[in-house]
Amino acid sequence: MPSTSTVTTASTVPGLAFAEAVVDLEAVAHNTRLFAGPVGGLMAVVKADGFGHGLVPVARTALAHGASWLGVTSCAEAGELRAAGVTAPILSWLHLPGQDFAEAILTDVDLAASSAEHLLGIARSAQRVALAARVQLKIDTGLSRNGSTADEWPELLRLAHRLELAGTIRVRGIWSHLSAAEDPATVPPQIRRFEDALAAAGSLGLHPPLRHLANSAATLGVPGSRYDLVRVGIGLYGVEPLPDKNFGLRPAMTLRGRAVMVKRVPRGTGVSYHHDYTTTGDTTLVLVPLGFADGVPRTASGHGEVSIHGTRYPIAGRVAMDQFVVDVGDAPVRIGDEVVLFGPGDDGEPTVIEWACWAGTNPHEILTGIGHRVPRRYLPAL
Length: 382
Hints:
With 382 residues, the protein is of the alpha/beta class. The protein contains 11 helices and 20 strands. It has 2 domains: 6-21 and 252-379, Lyase, Ornithine Decarboxylase, Chain A, domain 1, CATH 2.40.37.10; 69-228, Alanine racemase (TIM Barrel). The strands form 5 sheets. It has an 8-stranded parallel β-sheet. It has a 4-stranded antiparallel β-sheet with strand order 1-12-15-18, with no helix packed on it. A 4-stranded mixed β-sheet has the order 19-11-2-20.
């Protein structure tokens, strides 16, 4: 073997798409049907651009296959859905009290309120547009994040009751969020706190038609938490929410790139920044044009794997902003060959759960981190 590197570049293979995230909408449809089967109402959580899969395509697919509600974080996300012609009920749950809620109220978006201050902010917008705002009150049952504390809950209820009698708001729901639904021992105390909050509301004459608490894990694992509506997020995208249990969910995203450079290097070659990786023999290095700016976690450097021609190979050295290197040994990889980072796992490729483990995070972060530089290609639902 020559002592210098032999290099091939992507310029020899014109017209290649460097990378893409393929979103299987039939998988989303299948997962929606699976969750919708045993419950009365299903809210598809499509926040964060549909967990990176695409807000509008996922929303339309879920609604066509059993979802009756959509859940988003912000009024901006709700506005994007309405602008796309989506008319289904939407709940938006994270706001500043002083923001302008007029557009959300005028387009029939339900707004969450976790404090008297937030509720008054919604009420001011409702009075300006002369239309009752649809409101869902949130109680903190143990996550200690958003939601009213138990001490402040009576004040929020009294204010909501007064505003409803005045025709300023309409209370459509009471809800909360579980802290660790995959751990069954943590759920009963939160259900009891939720029941207490519902009873307090009833004692003041508030009887909204919707009560909801369960997320993906609770929907599948804790039937007593389902109430009138369940909110399904990560499960909608095919990630099994309960450890060591398989409910038949189908992963919806496959992330792949193409080799843009292939080079043969000698033993002892340092690879990528600071040479954390050094080749142990004469080998072939493959450059993949995806990096941490695209959502490939830098923390997976030295741990992550990809699949090329059905065989797994390790990431060699540090993941950079726009690229990373794979050591394929003596495999005959060529410019333009497909490199699968993760997919359903049906052909032995890594899964998003594995990538989450390599990166020390959860699948949610991997999926939502896939940046806008990576084009989405959709496989239509059946």
